[in-house]
Amino acid sequence: MRGTANERRPWTFYALAAFFVLFVLFLYGPMIVIYVLSFQGPNGGLTFPLNGVSLHWFHALIAQERTGDIAGAFRRSIGLAAMVTIFTVVFSVMAGLAFRRRFAGASMVFYMAIASLIMPGLFVSLGIGLVFQSLNMQPTWYGSALGAQLTWTLPYGLLIMFAVLGRFNRAYEEAASDLGASNWQRLLYVTLPIVLPGIIGVALFGFTLSYDEFPRTVLTAGSTNTLPLEIWAMTTNVTSPALFAVGTVTTVISFIVIAVALTSIALIQRRRARRAGKANESTTVS
Is 40 helix (H, G, I), strand (E, B) or coil? Predict the structure, then answer.
């Protein structure tokens, strides 16, 4: 039977399968090459073949041998991404809740909020940098760069919250009000727990977009570099696999953040399913 099924498959099936395989290799091949070359031996270079296998170039990042301030840039990027995540979550949730009710000028406010998505990031960075200079204020990674990155993350967070709250069943809130819950109790114990997976998604977007943002940071970070800026600087003066080691480390950090977010969402869904099962059992017994 299997042979008959395979014989019936048209040639387009195999052509599409081959195209998909080539696409995956084209997409992930360069990344795999970087990961492999980052484990070169102490005398290894930037190309194949491998001259030994070691963790020498990862240690070089910490010891700052022939590399820039990777440790400091990493701390700044993590701190900036954390701040961007907090502001993005808070403002996106507040804006999403506000837009549940129509108000005068809602459409204009919405289009102004997402207008920054169509602006090239480099021009946003240039504009914010010029404003800080005109005010005699020094651009910093925790000030001007924070504002520049929020023009990138907030629109995405707002769009996600629109999608989440658009599918929210208000019957839960009405039931809570009928049971005597106040507005704050309804928000804290009903609305936010239900939309929590969406909020985690907003946080994930905010962190990942900020962590590797380059155009909106290049002219607003001031005299200190974030990790993307430090990597860009390394491409001009570092000719060792330490550059590949940086790429491997940053990819691992990104995967860890994604895994934590997806695990949190899965645990929330499992807890909800468990509570729903217990509620059904109690209803059946009664």
Answer: strand
**Under a CB-based contact definition with an 8 Å cutoff, are residues 145 and 221 in contact?**
yes
Report pLDDT digits (tens) over 22-52: 998 888 888 888 888 888 888 777 777 888 8
Q: Token digits for 129? A: 């940098």
Cα separation, 192 vs 185, in Å, equals 10
Which residues are CB-contacts of 36 (< 8 A; sequence separation ≥ 6)? 50
Task: Report the alpha-carbon distance of residue 212 to residue 229 in Å, rounded.
Answer: 9
In the chain, where the domains are located? 77-237
Fill in the amino acid letter for 104. Answer: A
Tell me the C-alpha distance between 145 and 155, whole Å.
17
Identify the CATH homologous superfamily for domain 77-237: MetI-like (1.10.3720.10)
- CA 45 to CA 241: how far, in whole Å? 6
Across the range 271-280, mean pLDDT stands at 74
Tabulate helix, strand, coil % of the chain (nearest 5): 75, 0, 25
The 8-class DSSP code of residue 152 comes to H
Phi, psi torsion values for 40, nearest 5 degrees = -60, 155
Beta-carbon-side half-sphere exposure of residue 158 (alpha carbons within 13 Å): 21
The pLDDT confidence band at residue 1, using thresholds 50, 70 and 90, is very low
Looking at the DSSP assignment, which residues form a beta bridge with residue 40?
A: 53
Cβ contacts of 50 within 8 Å, gap of 6 or more: 36, 37, 39, 40, 41, 44
Burial 199-226 (b: 16+ CB within 10 A, else e): bbbbbbbbbbbbbebebbbbbbbbebbb
- Note the pLDDT tens digit of each residue in 133-191: 888 888 888 989 999 999 999 999 999 998 898 888 888 888 888 888 888 888 888 88
Q: How far apart are CA 195 and CA 259, in angstroms?
A: 19
